[in-house]
Amino acid sequence: MSQTLLEVGAIVKSAREVWDGPGYIVLQDDVIEDIGRGEYPGSRAGMTVVKRPHRVAIPGLVNTHGHAAMTLLRGAGDDLPLMTWLTERVFPMEAKLTEDAIYWGTLLACWEMIRSGTTCFTDMYMSMHKAAAAVEESGMRAVLSWGMVGLDETSARSGIRNSESFVGAWHRQAGGRITVTLGPHAPYTCPPDYLQQVAELAGRLAVPIQIHLSETRTEVDDCLRLYNRTPIAHAASCGLFEHPVLAAHCVHVTDEDIEIMRANDVHVAHNPQSNLKLASGIAPVPSMTQAGLIVGLGTDGAASNNNLDMFEELRLAATLHKAVAFDASILPAAQAFQMATEDGAKAVFLPAGSGTLEKGAAADVTLLDLRSPHLIPTHSLLSNVVYAAGADDVTDVFVAGRALLSNREPQTIDTERVEYEARRIAQALSQ
Amino acid sequence: MSQTLLEVGAIVKSAREVWDGPGYIVLQDDVIEDIGRGEYPGSRAGMTVVKRPHRVAIPGLVNTHGHAAMTLLRGAGDDLPLMTWLTERVFPMEAKLTEDAIYWGTLLACWEMIRSGTTCFTDMYMSMHKAAAAVEESGMRAVLSWGMVGLDETSARSGIRNSESFVGAWHRQAGGRITVTLGPHAPYTCPPDYLQQVAELAGRLAVPIQIHLSETRTEVDDCLRLYNRTPIAHAASCGLFEHPVLAAHCVHVTDEDIEIMRANDVHVAHNPQSNLKLASGIAPVPSMTQAGLIVGLGTDGAASNNNLDMFEELRLAATLHKAVAFDASILPAAQAFQMATEDGAKAVFLPAGSGTLEKGAAADVTLLDLRSPHLIPTHSLLSNVVYAAGADDVTDVFVAGRALLSNREPQTIDTERVEYEARRIAQALSQ
């Protein structure tokens, strides 16, 4: 049994409860065993005591959509129309990604995410056993899927085979920190009968599904032309929504789409910065949350963002929709914070309580520097975290009770090695 | 004479020229005396040598609009309609701002801006002699104006008097680091005859003008009702544009407005995050730059942002307009970078060359950590700076040849004292 006592200057337990004064959190193995205001009243015997009187503890941020090893493609193609970017830059480089590349690219992503306060991320990519090995080593929590594309018989079959073996090997492994889901890429890369097969497999393996849906206007137009249905209605008609589904993007959704998602409890990963940079558009998030959908926030891959900083997504989610609606009261700080933490955790199928600092919840905690100029003064701690904090304020990160970042120093990743390997691989990719 | 030799791993001289390999910069007194690739060929005798082999040098960022001491109101009111926010939160607190508060609030802003790589900022507020004292002490470059409001005779007269004495006392002072401009707040707080007086004063004192124009739809509608002209056309008709003018926001401008601004060489401060958060809207920046207007970027005050991080504005400017236009090639990385540096410097009336690292330019330099995970790998250094870098990557800042931040440590500001005073004052404000 391992016990850590965190003594901090303030605590944001959740979007609903902020303690603006000293408090403590006891991490016992991988859960929060106790949390309270003031001094810890119990005995410190046998505990690792971490004193951080000038830090605020918040639940670790949850990144609900991405492609981790795309860090290796960061900046390889920007300011290009989506299809040019994909066909001329991304696909040729991705064709050269080896298992080695996936491992190091994922570790680079983990380093970047830990340093910016994220404790759990979601991934859909290739050679995922190597990504899982990187996650295990980094100490992060992750929801992983082997991307499935059904455009030809060979890739369709290998998608099913890889996913099935990946579920068998890694679901609930790494001390329970890894969840495996199925990852059909999108309706435009997975024909209807393939989506039906995926749905059937999800039922048989009892795992959730993640998929890209309604990211661009072109995707929706094409889907309407081919199937006379929106991507959301089409996914429903293929039986996908009979299983737990996390739908990424949902930029171009109708009120009927939102009603279909609500009726089927489809979760949404909102990726505001990627949607802006790729010129996809702005998702109608206020309509989705008003309908009761669970919406989390995500960075998407580093090739389309170009970083994995969840504070940027948090801030953008809390500001962007105000301007669209010409209403400054839309999506207030507490709601945005909940999307980045508790609702993100729900969106990616973590157990109840995850994404909060409640007793009994997973011991995933991020500490921010209260002495950072961004966070001075403190008229509202929650407002400061949502509208002012940045990656530079993150000093400590705990996942499942273990310190992954301590006083800004990575504890689990050999960052010099990761930098060396990532530069080596990136050079090979661009040749 | 003081000479500093910076040895760095890479240099972004300007949006047009990136050196992706070792180089050097010689800062002599307050200008860049030499810059080159590889090793400095001259003698190092008498020079302060700063070795930063794992840093990239970029021109210091220029923040073209803000209200520095509003750091003291950070988070005091969010998620509220503009008029509620102003009348119920901002104005009552501002009424309590003493000269002491302006001094400490401005120093807090300087600390935050230095730490996030900004070397020059723009300010329009009150008790500006105290703000100027803070700027002088911090070592930053600044373009300051004493806010002028003409809603009654007393404040109108004191606005003129304060501005005139402020110009006399501080214009081109602090070793030339301070520029003073006139600061008529906006057409809705300055009646036409007052704007005419301000224009006349600008001519007499030979200083530029900064003003808020066309920030909200309501402002435009009211102006049309009152004067049968848009705020831009109205400002022109009051003679304001016969002098150099920096117009903040310009969110709701017509093609005719843009043509008036072009014909009069009116500069624009684009504040994307403030415009989103206050639900003002999204400025038609691509139309303005295509028309040839000089557009810089700004944070606005910390009460409406809520931080002073120019990397966020840079990233938002480079991504937001893509989604609005559904065109990923709009406002590419180089253009956004130019807006945050060289065009920002032009916008706030700094001498030619400012905002670049060209020989002879002002010695305002920011260094970023090339070993930050955000900046690995390096397919494109400029893309990494625009789309991935953050305040956490800033390690060193020089203004006018002097180190204000060295290996992340502030060199000119007693940050513990600033934190103490800012918290003390903020507490009094909220009582």
Textual characterization of the structure:
- The structure is a homodimer of 431-residue chains.
- Chain A is of the alpha/beta class.
- Chain A has 2 domains: 108 residues, Urease, subunit C, domain 1 (Roll), CATH 2.30.40.10; 287 residues, TIM Barrel (Alpha-Beta Barrel), CATH 3.20.20.
- Chain A has 15 helices and 18 strands.
- In chain A, strands 1, 2, 3, 4, 5, 15, 16, 17 and 18 form a 9-stranded mixed sheet that branches. In chain A, strands 6, 7, 8, 9 and 10 form a 5-stranded parallel sheet that branches. Chain A has a 4-stranded parallel sheet with strand order 11-12-13-14.
- In chain A, strand 1 and strand 2 form a beta hairpin.
- In chain A, 63% of the residues are buried.
- Chains A, B: It is an enzyme of class 3 (hydrolase).
- Chains A, B: It catalyses: S-adenosyl-L-homocysteine + H2O + H(+) = S-inosyl-L-homocysteine + NH4(+); S-methyl-5'-thioadenosine + H2O + H(+) = S-methyl-5'-thioinosine + NH4(+).
- Chains A, B: InterPro entries: Amidohydro-rel (IPR006680), Deaminase_MtaD/DadD (IPR023512), Metal-dep_hydrolase_composite (IPR011059), Metal_Hydrolase (IPR032466), MTA/SAH_deaminase (IPR050287).
- Chains A, B: Keywords: Hydrolase, Metal-binding, Zinc.
- Chains A, B: It comes from Alicyclobacillus cycloheptanicus.
